[in-house]
Amino acid sequence: MRFPEIFLHFIWQFRLFQVLNLFCTTGERLCIKGVGMANKHAGPDFNQAKLCIGDRTWIGDVEIHLKSSDWLLHGHQDDPAYDAVILHVVYEHDQVIYRKDGSLIPVLILKDLFPESLLQHYEGLVHSIHSFPCEKQIHRIDPIVINGFLSRMMIERLAQKSDLVFDHLAKVKGDWEGTFYHFLAKSFGFKVNEIPFELLATSLPLSVIRKHLDHPSQVEALVFGQAGFLVGTFIDAYPRKLKKEYQFLQKKYGLTPIGVGAWRFLRMRPQNFPTLRLAQFCALLLKSDRLFSRVLELEELPELKQLLQELPVNPYWKTHYHFQKETKKVQIQLGQRSILHLIMNAVCLFAAAYGKYSDQPDLMNRGLQLLEQMPAESNVIISHYQQAGVVIENAFFSQAVLQLNKYYCAQKKCLNCGIGIKILNQ
Question: What is the four-CA torsion angle of 167, 170, 175, 179, rounded to 10 degrees?
Answer without folding.
Answer: -20
